[in-house]
DNA sequence: GGTTTTAATGAAAATGATTTTCAATAAGAA
DNA sequence: TTCTTATTGAAAATCATTTTCATTAAAACC
């Protein structure tokens, strides 16, 4: 199904080649779709958008490509507890990108926020240190998420 | 399959009756199993333990009963991101019970902790208030979780 | 105690997101 | 252009959980 190669972002092409991977149309389109969106897209969402560009690309390929992009740290996979993964483009440095999610449990709308990020990082640091020591854990990651009702969904009730 | 009734905890019997529900052996056993354990059990785990007491109880009933107990606020359902729900007995008041999880991504071991709970509650309160105002969300719940490697899994690598 | 109503049950089938299999295709090296 | 093998799509497989439906048994009512 692929056509020609080497169009998409140079760096992307380079990063792929670097690990013996190939640049294909499917990969360009999937990355493009998630990159253009500022929503938190499910695999299905991505699939639908990809199809609008090229009807020949299968859902399986979308899943595989999303996995690949997550492993390349170009996307992050989020879990909002509704049984389907969502994907979000990682922009800038890890520091820039650090944020949390506010999830509407009705319509699944998600807002990214960075409020109190300083205080939070400080508290997390303390907590991580204490937990590492107390329970002999090496902490690698953390998850903070708020759940509630967005404006529209609250009014609808 | 049930036998006689009215043995299990009075209050449990009472709470069930209160909403037109029935006290069955399956429900007693499921509650008993989760109550005795201080692990975070999956439905399968509960099923296996239940079977040791009564081979006639099906997996479907275990799922249904876990749902019921969660709705009755006797259990809480946790999601550690491995695609299966876990269940934990809620003890004492909501205040007493407030804690977070430290999850080993290798062996899935989970530790409950309450360290820095005061500071955390304070920060969460501030954050909740700010987010409510800023994004017009009514916040109902939050999730804080740390991921890492436990002692044993770190050494094994 | 026996009857009756209907909630609860178990087995099997259905669901839904994701993964695997496998033969066909095409990226990119030679 | 040829050749190697990564990538692909379609279909089947997985796996946790839910639904369906006919059967059974709590517990309310004689």
General description of the model:
The structure is a homodimer of 157-residue chains. With 157 residues, chain A is an alpha+beta fold. The first copy, chain A, folds into two domains: 1-93, Arc Repressor Mutant, subunit A, CATH 1.10.10.10; 98-157, Dna Ligase, domain 1 (2-Layer Sandwich). The first copy, chain A, contains seven helices and six strands; from the N terminus they run ααβααββαββαβα. Chain A has helices spanning 10-18, 25-36, 43-53, 59-71, 94-97, 117-135, 151-156; strands at 41-42, 75-79, 85-89, 100-104, 110-113, 138-149. A three-stranded antiparallel beta sheet of chain A has the order 1-3-2. In chain A, strands 5-4-6 form a three-stranded mixed beta sheet. In chain A, β2 and β3 form a beta hairpin. Chain A binds chain B through residues 79, 81, 102, 104-105, 111, 113, 115-116, 119-120, 123, 126-128, 130-132, 134-151, 154, and chain B through 79, 81, 102, 104-105, 111, 113, 115-116, 119-120, 123, 126-128, 130-132, 134-151, 154. β6 (138-149) of chain A pairs antiparallel with β6 (138-149) of chain B. Chain A binds a DNA duplex (30 and 30 nucleotides) through α4.
Q: What distinguishing features does this structure have?
A:
alpha+beta, Dna Ligase, domain 1, three-stranded mixed β-sheet, homodimer, three-stranded antiparallel β-sheet, DNA-binding, 2 domains
Secondary structure layout plus pairing:
The structure is a homodimer of 157-residue chains.
Chain A: H1 10-18, H2 25-36, E1 41-42, H3 43-53, H4 59-71, E2 75-79, E3 85-89, H5 94-97, E4 100-104, E5 110-113, H6 117-135, E6 138-149, H7 151-156
Parallel strand pairs in A: 4-6
Antiparallel strand pairs in A: 1-3, 2-3, 4-5
Helix pairs in contact in A: 2-3, 2-4, 3-4
Chain A binds a DNA duplex (30 and 30 nucleotides) through α4.
């Amino acid at each position: 199904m692929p056509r020609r190669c080497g169009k998409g972002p140079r760096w992307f092409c380079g990063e792929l080649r670097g690990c013996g991977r190939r640049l294909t149309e499917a990969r360009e389109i999937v990355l493009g779709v998630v990159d253009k969106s500022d929503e938190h897209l499910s695999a299905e969402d991505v699939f639908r958008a990809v199809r609008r560009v090229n009807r020949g690309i299968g859902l399986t390929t979308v899943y595989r490509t999303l996995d690949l992009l997550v492993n390349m740290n170009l996307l992050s996979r989020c879990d909002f507890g509704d049984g389907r993964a969502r994907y979000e483009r990682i922009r800038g440095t890890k520091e820039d990108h650090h944020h949390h999610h506010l999830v509407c449990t009705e319509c699944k709308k998600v807002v990214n926020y960075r409020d109190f990020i300083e205080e939070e990082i400080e508290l997390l640091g303390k907590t991580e240190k204490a937990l590492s020591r107390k329970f002999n854990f090496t902490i690698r990651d953390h998850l903070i998420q708020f759940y509630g009702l967005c404006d529209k969904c609250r009014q609808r009730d």
